[in-house]
Structures are given as C-alpha cells and as structure tokens.
Amino acid sequence: MTNPAGTPTFDAVELIRRKRSGQRLTDEQIDWLIPAYTRGDVADEQMSAMAMAVYFRGMDDAELSTWTTAMINTGERLDFSSLSRPTADKHSTGGVGDKITLPLAPLVAACGVAVPQLSGRGLGHTGGTLDKLEAIPGWRADLTNDQMLRQLDEVGAVICAAGSGLAPADKKLYALRDVTGTVEAIPLIASSIMSKKIAEGTDSLVLDVKVGSGAFMATIDQARELATRMVALGRAAGVNTTALLTDMDTPLGLTAGNALEVAESVEVLAGGGPADVVELTLALAREMVASAGVDVDPADKLADGSARDVWKAMIRAQGGDPDAPLPRASHTDHMVAAVDGIISRVDAMAVGLAAWRLGAGRARKEDAVQAGAGVVLHAKPGERVQAGQVLATLHTDTPAAFERAHQALADCWAIGVEAPERRPIVIDRIS
Amino acid sequence: MTNPAGTPTFDAVELIRRKRSGQRLTDEQIDWLIPAYTRGDVADEQMSAMAMAVYFRGMDDAELSTWTTAMINTGERLDFSSLSRPTADKHSTGGVGDKITLPLAPLVAACGVAVPQLSGRGLGHTGGTLDKLEAIPGWRADLTNDQMLRQLDEVGAVICAAGSGLAPADKKLYALRDVTGTVEAIPLIASSIMSKKIAEGTDSLVLDVKVGSGAFMATIDQARELATRMVALGRAAGVNTTALLTDMDTPLGLTAGNALEVAESVEVLAGGGPADVVELTLALAREMVASAGVDVDPADKLADGSARDVWKAMIRAQGGDPDAPLPRASHTDHMVAAVDGIISRVDAMAVGLAAWRLGAGRARKEDAVQAGAGVVLHAKPGERVQAGQVLATLHTDTPAAFERAHQALADCWAIGVEAPERRPIVIDRIS
Predict the structure, then answer these.
(1) Is the pLDDT of residue A233 over 80?
(2) Which of A199, A233, B129, B135 could bridge to A166 as Cys pair (CB 3.0-4.6 Å)?
(3) Which sequence positions of A are flagged as catalytic?
(4) Which H or E run contains A115?
C-alpha cells in the first residue's frame, strides 16, 4: 500500500507528543510518517525524537506491524516465485565469531531449499558476513537481482550485498538511530530486521537471536522479547518464521576475523570444525529445511560432501576461487595462561573487541578491514590449561595494535578449579 | 567559563545513551555538549534525542545548574552594576490575557527599583508582551544595550526585545524543541528561562508561574516543580529569586488581544481596571520591591499616579505616543448567554484560542499580528447573567475568522445555579 492521493497528512510534532505521552500511533499516522520521513518531509531531528520516544514507550503489535509494512512499502519487494524450489532465509542478530551463514547457506541448498542471503558488512566488535567472504580472492558481494535469481536457480545458494532498493526507509532510519543513541529500542530493531527480510520475499525465515556478552541482546528477557516480536511480524506478513535463542557468552568456534572464519567454515563443510559451530549450523539448517517443507536431514548432506560442493559452486559463481590460499596476517602474537586450572569462561565481547582492534573490523563504515587479522582461540571453557600455555594467537598486519588487543583480552579468560556447567548452544525456540 | 584548550571532548551518542539509561551527565560532559551543539558539532538530530531522553529521565539539581551555566556561557552577560538603583526582573510563564508586565514595570520603577524587561513575541494562544506594546503607535521594541541602560537610568523601566547575544544556545535549543515535541521537559523549560534571566544580570527576579487551562503548566504539581527548579537555579547563580504560583484557569482581566490589553493596562495605571489584574500586579510588585530591598508600598505609587507617569515616560522613550488612540479592529461580533444562571467558569484556553484565531496571535513566528483583534469579556465567574445577554465581544479585521472563534468559545462558559468558590489568584509562594 503506497500512499494514495488524498491520504491525510499529519503534524510530526503532534505524533511525537502522542507517542511521548504513551498513546499508540494510528495506521494512518504511521502510513503518513514513514514515507514522509523517507522523502525528507519529516526532519531527522523529528524522527530521532520519535525514535527516543519509542525507546521509552514501545509499540504494540498492530502498531509495529503497520510500521514495518510502511517501511517495506517505501521500496521494492523481491519475488522468488519463479524458482522451482522453496526459499528459506536466516537472519542472525550478530555475535563474535558468528560465521554460521557460510556453511549454513550451502548446506541448506544441498537439501533442496533455495537460500537467498542478503547480508551486510560489520561495524564495531561483530563481524560482517560480506567482510568474511571478501577474504576469498576474487569473490564479489554485489549482484544484480537477475544475477541473484539465476544463481539461486543454478547453485541454490547466494550470499550477497542487500541492494539499496529494499526498505530505503530502514536504511535512512538505521543510519539516524546509529548516531542518536536510539539503536537499542526493541520495536525498532525488530522492524528494521523484518522490513528487509519480508521485502526479500522469502517463503520461510529462521531467526538466530544471540544472547550474552558478545551479543546485542545481553539478557535472555530482551532476546526473547525481540524474537517474539520478530516472529509475530513475520507471521503477520505471511512468512513462516521461527526463532532460536542461542548462546553468545563464549565466541562461536575458535576464530574471530575474516579469513580465519572462512577457513573454519570450510573445515565444517569438510566434516570437521568446532563442535559448537557444527551444532548450531545443523540446528539452524534443520529449522530452515523443515520450515520450507522439505524432508531431508542436513547432517547427511554435510557427511556426503554435497554441502561442500555447493559452497565451491557458490563461491565460483561470484568470482571467487574456493581453492586459493586465504590471506594471512603478517604478524602474530600470543596470550598465555597465567595459572593452572580449568577454563570457566572466555568472554565473547573481549574477543570481538580484540579482533576489531587487530584490524578485522571497522570503526566507521567507510573504513577498510584486514582480511587476515583476528584471534584464534586454542582453548574453550571446560578445558584444562597450564600456566604459560598459549590460550590465543593474535593476527594482524599492524603490530602496533597488539597492545590494545592485549588490553581487550586482559579479563577475557576465567580459570578456576571446577569445570563449568555445559550450556546448550540453543537456549530456546520461539515459533 | 568558556571551554579552555584541552577540555575533554566526548561522543554525543555515548552521552545520549548515558542520559537514556538514567545516569547523570557530568559537568565535563555538559560543558562539552552545550557549546558543541551551539557551534554545530553536535547535530540537531542528536540534541533532539537528548532532549527526549531528558524528558523521560530528568536532570538532578547540580546537573541542571551546570547545563544552565553552560547555556549562559555561550553568549554575553549584561551588567547593570553601573545603575544607581537595584534591579528587579520578572518572568511569567505566559497565560491568556497576561498583560501584567505592562502596568508592573512602571509601577516597580516608580518605587525606586530599575526594571529591565527583556521580552518576546507570542506564539499560539498566549500573547507576547512586545506584540501588545507594538499596538501603541510609534513604539519600537529594539534597543541597543546602551539605549537600554540609559533608559533604565533615566526612566527606571524598559520593556524591549531580548538581543540575540544572550544564551544563543537556548535560542537554538528552543527552536529545536519546538519542532521535535520536546518543549515540555521541565528541566529544559527551567534552564531555557533561567539562562536568559541570569545572563541579563538582574539582582533579583520574581517568577510568575501560571497554573491552569490557559497555562503551559496544567497542574499545580508541574507548576510547583518548575517553580522550585527555577528558584534553585536563580539562587545558585546569586540572583535573589522567588516564585508565585498563580491561577490561569480564567483569563486575567477582561481582555485578550494586543491593543485591548494595552487599554486595560492603562486603566489599571489610572487606578481602575479589573480586580484580578490589580491584585496580581500589586502582588508581583511587592515581591520585586521587597527582593530589591526597597521599603515602599507599590499601592501608594499606583494611587498617587507616579506609576502612570513612568508608563508614559517609558512609552515615549521608545518612540511611542502614550496618548494616541489605540488601533481598533474593523469588525465586531458577540457571544451571548444561552441560559440564565451564574457563571461558574470562563475557560482561559478557549479565550486564548479565540483571540489567536481572530488575528491577535500568530501560528508561525514570521506571521504578523493584528493590533486590534481579540476578545473582550463582559462577565467573569461569579456573575449572574440572563439568556441572551452578551458574554463577550469579538474583534477582528478579518471577519471570516468569526466562525472559528465562535467554535473555540463554544464550551468556554459554564453557567450554573451556584456561585463558584472564589479562588485566590496567588496560589502559592516559593522562595
């Protein structure tokens, strides 16, 4: 629904005051506000005040659904109905070492489900999927819609940059929230993610909502609220949506950094890799395959090498050489254990911050990232270590960064006398 | 204190998030934020988000004092120390029919206290003091600081436009709050008013904080909080500050409109005028004279005609002719009583809105106002009226406005069988 001629217009100040006082916005008010902001008739300083009012006052389900639909309606919608296979998409709220998209997309495609993964670049301590794949020589992120559709048809999986045509309101609003301290409003996070995912036109969607020190949502309650609201939005828009709440206190796998994470993903596709990465990849793959209505066990497709074959085809289709050696950083350094004992904790945020400072991430969106930079962990919670044993290797092309990376990691490891309780990686499922 | 070289700089987003989460801002943070916003290093969309966060989270007394001082420090401070008399200033939060400044300034000057009244123009349903005086043929609002000082020395009272040199941060922030739904934050109202009043350099200050339907503060609790915070700010800055909470459910006096209110003020100075206007003028005059340490009863100066003499000298000093006939609107219309009974209520907001629609006020700050437009009441609460009796005369140069003025006044009068309780005009005093 685009705004027809004769749609009522409103006063932005009146709408801000309304939300500020705890009243809900009507459908007509939202259907005016979002396009008016997108075309510049509502000013940035008005929308940031509105976003802060939403932070404090929230939005009810119907309001949020209207808000999200209005964002979608500012742009195009993709259409995968010409594909012979059902489509399933996945979104992760982002976490340290979260390379799951890399093995997951080819694995699910190998099960007979088309996987269109429109991804982004990283900012701050969480990496971006496109940054990781760009470590592969020759690989390119930018595809036209036609190229994307052809690759989905021929290969079954595509991971590429989201075009600017999807929900331009979100692009503008997200950039505003980023500089006005209003990112953390849960309804705005939910509508930002879901407007793009719904506009993508997937049949089904699995959300990986991270909880813990390395995640955007630090508490289980926040994560559950975000997941519940996104699932409701997806279902209201006719997308078969489920969410997993997954643990992000400890980094996923043993690597954080672009090429380092690609290498670890390739290990998983070859049948190896860290147990937690394999476990989460399979859990998400099973959700995606089931929600697409396909009766195949992804574990079989991992075991028989067909997921790895799709991976190679997917990388080649976007100009990359899946067999080329990956870039390596020019300098390495180590962190060692100070005492004997059993590791009880490896802080995900600390590892993410260290990888970022080593050059794996960017502080501003126009910054470049180092392909080889990052952190490799040699021990995870539950493992016994001895004083002096290497806990992590730091990689960078800019050795001056080692000092600040060491600072970030100073309190990363907790070493005690008892093995910590083993926590499941999937904490809860919301559908 | 302007920012010396080496003052720490901060991240605006971090400060917004800090306030959003309920933490206080430090002195260093505020001393960075306010000048950074004033010179444009902090963007409007960041400051509006901050203002909305302040709306929800408030500011403690020390924080608010630092904020206010930082606003003052973005501009000049006036200095009245060369005057032979003590100075006293008054600020009203604005209400319908509030012409009190007009008789008050010359009355207090007649008592031997210098009264520098830097005033503004009206916006919306409350009139502006300068708009009212500009109804007097020849009178001009703009004076240089030197002209103002000379007039204070020679006449004792001046009512003129506030120069742009006082607290430019406030000018910019107020304009932003006006378009972002963040006007109503009490700490921001208090700092906006007090930054200008403290920068004016007066020795003492009396605040007239209005409560009721025609006022900015609709409840006594809000008004008391605003008054208390302003008094604390004034005293912290060495200004002898007191506040009266005064009733604004019913319009002050019998007129709302520029020339109409000047005429009513002249009546008061001539020893007549409505009882409520006289009562409030004397109450405020007594506070101002006492806080300036002068032992004179203003009632004597009203009775002996010296206040009126200062009025004429003050108008003449700014180019006006105090004896010239005032402009009159070209068209009039009437509202009549629908039933017999005793008036229990005359709604101030309705009268203000009607006067505004008739042309006495402006919707946008670049609009012109009509000198003669407005409403004259013929009966106030407690008076007995008969069906068909004229309750109010409407004045305008644009008769098409009558219909919307009548609509505004539709529920203005409540007429019952019992006389309403007589409410005192001064509800409380805060010092």
Answers:
(1) yes
(2) A199
(3) 91, 170, 177, 192, 196
(4) strand A115-119
Q: Looking at the partner chain, which of A12, A43, A49 has a beta carbon nearest the beta carbon of B49?
A: A49
Contacts of B269 (CB under 8 A, 6+ apart): B103, B106, B107, B302, B307, B308, B311
**pLDDT digit string, tens, across residues B374-400:** 999 999 999 999 999 999 999 999 999
Among A50, A55, A177, A182, pick the best mutation site for testing chain B contact (most B Cβ within 10 A). Answer: A182
**In CATH, what number does A12-72 get?**
1.20.970.10
pLDDT over threshold 60, residue B6: no
pLDDT, tens digit, for every residue of A161-192?
Answer: 987 789 999 999 998 998 999 998 999 999 99
CATH for the stretch B331-416 = 3.90.1170.30
- Tokens 């003590």 -> residue: B86
Q: Does A363 touch chain B (CB under 8 A)?
A: no
B155 pLDDT exceeds 80?
Answer: yes
| CA A222 from centre of chain | 17
The answer to whether the Cα torsion of A409, A410, A412, A416 is positive or negative is positive
List CB contacts of A201: < 8 A, sequence separation 6 or more: A77, A78, A79, A80, A81, A87
Residue that the structure tokens 């079989």 belong to? A300
Minimum mean pLDDT range among A24-28, A121-125, A305-309, A374-378: A121-125
Report yes or no on whether pTM surpasses 0.95: no
Sequence-ordered list of residues with C-beta below 8 angstroms from that of B383, at least 6 positions apart, any chain: B342, B343
**pLDDT category of residue A2 using cuts at 50, 70 and 90:** very low
Q: Kindly report, residue by residue over A93-135, the tens digit of the pLDDT.
A: 887 888 999 999 999 999 999 999 988 776 666 678 999 999 9
Q: Which residues of A touch B180 (CB under 8 A)?
A: 13, 16, 45-46, 48-49
Closest listed residue to residue B75, CA positions, set B177, B203, B140, B167:
B167
Nearest to B45 among A14, A16, A44 (CB): A44
| Inter-CA distances, B71 with B46, B174, B234, B338, B384, Å | 17, 12, 14, 52, 51
Hey, is the C-beta of A26 within 8 angstroms of any chain B C-beta? no
Q: Do A52 and B47 touch (CB under 8 A)?
A: no
Task: Tell me the domain boundaries of chain A.
Answer: 12-72, 88-163+174-317, 331-416
Residues 6+ apart with CB under 8 A from A192: A71, A170, A173, A174
Q: Once rounded to an integer, what is the mean pLDDT over residues A324-340? A: 96
The mean predicted confidence, pLDDT, of chain A is 93
ipTM: 0.86
Q: Which CATH architecture has domain B88-163+174-317?
A: 3-Layer(aba) Sandwich (3.40)
3-state secondary structure B317-359: HCCCCCCCCCCCCCEEEEEECCCCEEEEEECHHHHHHHHHHHH
- Site of tokens 């009146």: A14
- Tokens matching residue A124: 């701050």
B48 pLDDT above the threshold of 70: yes
